[in-house]
Structure formats: structure tokens, C-alpha cells
Specification:
alpha/beta, Rossmann fold, 2 domains, 7-stranded parallel beta sheet, 6-stranded parallel beta sheet, 13 strands, 13% strand
Length: 452
């Protein structure tokens, strides 16, 4: 596969737009690359608006945008950014055409949704796209899709079909992605499991393409880059022979008692295993930081760090021994590096890793976390079983499948993508079920709760 991280993106013709004004009358910043001659868009071009704001959206859309821009003039692509994060776009030298700057201190979800709808709708009316691309299940994705619908513009949903079947877990993501599906024209499902979830909801099969997850594309293009922990939040962590346990937890449904249980389990873990270090990049949310720092600050071999940039995070993920997380994205990323994942949730919308034996859903009980982590720290056979196999979420070709699908859609061709080109992971060799053991003390249904 071509190494996309080292290809200078082909500079497209960039169009200068009037400033976008949000609902409070504040002008949004518009970042444009000037062009000496402004030409009318080609009637044959497919005009695409890609909307993003959070770091996961940037990671998962960056290579799609680069592939679209390399195919100018077949595609004319404008990037709309809502302003939460920027580092990944800077790495790939992608400059937003619309920088909407919608974030405000302590704003509610409803306020954020209104700002996204207003500003994205304004951007769409100026650029007049054929299709709006959204990714995942953020409030940005939901608001942008709704804005496109109000403008009667088609929506392409990348990472479509993820379902937990619990509208409050994760909150608000489960409802966001369900509502986006209702108004989507092209559903880019990352896996067959996601496709089947959409089919069960009545989405026509002709509108679904199984692409793999674009995060695997990003990992393959970035993971080989040389990287040092110097001048990063990891700089002061001793580089000894300790096994590294990477921990992340920030979801709203985990705040409070559940996070306290997790902290107590981590303290138990380092006391019982002198050869491990826990590295926990702590989310910036005050509700998360207050609990974590109160319970874990100053504990020997538990390293609480500031959030990591994505390149540093990938470096840590490659070096670690084990991952404990409530993050959906890390569930997708860790199998690329053959790292077992213990999922700190009671249900996941990404069951593929669990089905392939590369992750296990363990909930947030103190006993369950300690027992399952100790199993992998002490049982080499168990660890080997969970660290083998290829990533069930993608093969590094999701972006090219998405771009080819959009080209065929714009030209009115069917099917949207030849079924032989869709993503189909190789099955992992069957592993015999293990015996019931002491970890069964966790609440019934928690340890292996996966919707099928």
C-alpha cells in the first residue's frame, strides 16, 4: 500500500467564501488558500463537504480527504471544521475551508447542536455540495447531517451501523448515530456486523458498503514514524523493564462510582505486581480529573499524564503490554499492534474484537478489573490467545473504498461497490472456550455482554 503519510497532498483549487455567522451573530473564521483565478465549478465534479471537529473525526477522515483531493477535478472537496481539535489536520497539511469555532465554555449538548446546525447549513448553502460526509457519532456528525438534510443534500455516513442498543450507553453517541442513519444516503459500514445492524433497521442493502474502518488506514500510515517520548507527557516515565498497562476512561456513563472502582482496582494491581507500570493519560474534563487525581495521585508506578497527541499515543500503544479502556476508538486501534484489550464497559457497539478473541468486556467492578487484568499478566497462554490475529476492523484500504464508492454514486453506477472489493476480514483460528474461573464474581452478564 502506498505510504500516505509521506505523500505531499495535491493542492486543490481552494474557493474563498463569505464569512459564516453563527446564531449569536459572531463571525466564524474561514481559512482559505488563495488562488489567482476563480473558476466556476465543473458540472461533472462531485462537490463534497467533509465535516469534523473532534480528534477521532480528524484521524478517521484525514486520509479520505487526501484521497478525494488527489482526484480533483473529479471531486471538489471543502473541509468544515467545528474547532475542537486541529493537530491531526496540521500533520496531514489539511487546512479547513470553513473554521466554524462553535465551542464555548460549559455549553450544553443542545446549544452545541444548534451552533453546528446553523453554521454547517450556512457553509453548505455557500459551497453547494452534492454530498456531505460525516464520521461516527459525535454531536458534530449529528448536527452536520441534520443541516445537510435541511438543505436537501445527500449524506454519506462513515462508520455507520455501530449499535449498543442502549440509548444512554454511550450517551449521547448511540442516539446520534441512529438519527444520522435515518437521513443517510450512503452508509459506509466498517464491518459486516455494522452492515447487519443497518439491514435489521430496514436500510436498503444497495445503500450500504462495507469498507473497513478508516482508523486502520491512519494507523498504518503513521505508526512507522520515528518517535521519541522526549518533550512529551511521557518523558519522566522510567524506561526500565516494567510491563506497561495503558489505561483510559472518560465516558460520561463511567463518572462517579464506576471510576472510583477502577481506580481502586489499579491500586490493587500495582501493589500485587511489582513489574508493571500503569500509564493513564487523564482526560481534560474536570469531572474525570477530580476523581482520578484524588484517588491515584502519588501512587508508586501509577503515572497520571496530560492527554497525549496522537503520534505519542500510537507510540505508547505499540510499547504497552495491555490496554484497559472505555474508548471505542482504542478498541479498534489496539488489535493492529496485537495488544489485548479489557473493555471497561458493560456493552460495546464494537463487538468484533471480542468475537475474534482480542478484547473482553469486563465492566467497571473492582474485582472484575483486577481479576481479568491479573489473568493476562500471569497466564502466558491466555495472553497469547488474545494478542494473535489480524485487526477485524480494517485492512488499511477503507479510504480508497469510500472514494471509489462516492465516484460510482455520483455517476449513477450500481452497485455502489463490487462486493468482491468490500472489506471481509480473515477469520481468526478457533480458540477453545476457557473454563469458568474466579473472574465470574463480576455481575452477571457483564464479562461477556455483546449484542448479537
Amino acid at each position: 500500500m502506498l505510504d500516505k503519510a509521506h505523500i505531499a497532498p495535491t493542492e486543490p483549487r481552494r474557493i474563498v467564501f463569505p464569512a459564516v455567522v453563527d446564531r449569536d451573530g459572531r463571525p466564524s473564521r474561514v481559512v482559505c488558500t488563495p488562488h489567482p483565478v476563480e473558476r466556476a465549478p465543473s458540472p461533472k465534479s462531485c462537490r463534497v463537504v467533509a465535516v469534523m471537529g473532534t480528534r477521532p473525526e480528524e484521524i478517521k477522515l484525514a486520509l479520505v480527504i487526501l484521497d478525494l483531493r488527489r482526484q480533483y477535478p473529479e471531486f471538489e472537496t471543502a473541509v468544515v471544521h467545528t474547532g475542537q481539535h486541529r493537530a491531526i489536520l496540521d500533520h496531514f497539511k489539511i487546512k479547513p475551508d470553513f473554521d466554524l469555532d462553535v465551542m464555548r465554555p460549559n455549553q450544553t449538548l443542545s446549544t452545541l447542536t444548534c451552533r453546528v446546525v446553523d453554521t454547517v447549513e450556512n457553509a453548505c448553502r455557500r459551497f453547494k455540495p452534492n454530498i456531505v460526509l460525516v464520521q461516527g457519532d459525535t454531536t458534530t456528525a449529528f448536527g452536520a447531517a441534520l443541516a445537510a438534510y435541511y438543505c436537501k443534500i445527500s449524506v454519506g455516513h462513515i462508520e455507520a451501523g455501530l449499535r449498543s442498543h442502549d440509548i444512554y450507553s454511550p450517551f449521547p453517541e448511540e442516539v446520534n448515530r441512529r438519527l444520522v442513519s435515518v437521513i443517510t444516503e450512503i452508509h459506509f459500514a466498517p464491518t459486516a456486523f455494522s452492515r447487519d445492524a443497518l439491514l435489521a433497521e430496514g436500510v436498503p442493502a444497495a445503500k450500504i458498503v462495507v469498507t473497513g474502518n478508516t482508523v486502520v488506514d491512519a494507523l498504518q500510515s503513521l505508526s512507522h514514524l520515528p518517535h521519541s517520548w522526549e518533550n512529551t507527557p511521557l518523558a519522566d516515565i522510567p524506561m526500565d523493564d516494567s510491563r506497561l498497562v495503558l489505561v483510559t476512561s472518560h465516558r460520561r456513563e463511567s463518572w462517579g462510582r464506576d471510576q472510583e472502582n477502577m481506580c481502586l482496582a489499579l491500586k490493587d494491581l500495582v501493589r500485587r505486581h511489582s513489574d508493571i507500570r500503569v500509564i493513564y493519560p487523564v482526560h481534560m474534563n474536570p469531572s474525570v480529573r477530580s476523581t482520578i487525581h484524588a484517588l491515584l495521585s502519588g501512587i508508586d508506578r501509577i503515572h497520571l499524564t496530560e492527554p497525549l497527541d496522537y503520534i505519542t499515543f500510537i507510540s505508547l500503544l505499540r510499547r504497552c503490554f495491555l490496554v484497559l479502556t472505555d474508548s471505542g476508538g482504542i478498541q479498534e486501534e489496539a488489535p493492529t499492534f496485537h495488544k489485548p484489550v479489557l473493555v471497561l464497559r458493560t456493552v460495546t457497539e464494537r463487538p468484533e474484537a471480542s468475537q475474534f478473541g482480542m478484547a473482553k468486556i469486563i465492566g467497571m467492578s473492582r474485582e472484575g478489573i483486577l481479576c481479568e487484568a491479573e489473568r493476562l499478566l500471569t497466564d502466558t497462554k491466555e495472553y497469547k490467545q488474545m494478542s494473535e490475529g489480524e485487526n477485524p476492523f480494517g485492512d488499511g484500504r477503507a479510504s480508497e473504498r469510500i472514494v471509489e464508492t462516492m465516484s460510482r454514486w455520483h455517476l449513477g453506477k450500481t452497485p455502489l461497490l463490487d462486493p468482491d472489493k468490500e472489506f471481509n476480514p480473515c477469520p481468526k483460528p478457533r480458540v477453545l472456550p476457557r473454563k469458568v474461573d474466579a473472574c465470574a464474581v463480576a455481575p452477571e452478564g457483564i464479562l461477556e455482554k455483546v449484542h448479537s
